[in-house]
Design brief:
Length: about 120
């Protein structure tokens, strides 16, 4: 059973920065994709950024140029560097790991970490 533990959330003023961390209980090299999603109150969970086992990354339009997803395969950790934060970035941020074995897709979520951006 893969486990994900997020940390790094908190309260920050608009324009500030935070770095989220997601520690994975197994080798992230075995994961097809690692990502960050977020869910604001009253809204659906949405993709923020993903990274594959290669160097491919994908970002939501709303965070392009401000957020960076990167991974440390030695530490089995995925990070989300968030700069120039805006109040609309306020949400619970969830780490996600996906692995496909044969025809079966396994998806694991972390418990979430709160990010609050004040104006």
């Amino acid at each position: 059973q893969v486990q994900l533990v997020e940390s790094g959330g908190g309260l920050v003023q608009a324009g500030g920065s935070l770095r989220l961390s997601c520690v994975v209980s197994t080798s992230i090299v075995s994961m097809n994709s690692m990502g960050w999603y977020r869910q604001a109150p009253g809204k659906q969970r949405e993709l923020v950024a993903t990274t594959t086992t290669g160097v491919s990354t994908n970002y939501a339009d709303s965070v392009k140029g401000r957020f960076t997803i990167f991974r440390d395969n030695i530490k089995n950790t995925v990070y989300l560097q968030m700069n120039s934060l805006k109040p609309e970035d306020t949400a619970v941020y969830y780490c996600n790991a996906e692995r496909k074995i044969g025809a079966t897709r396994y998806v694991t979520w972390g418990q979430g970490t709160q990010v609050t951006v004040s104006s």
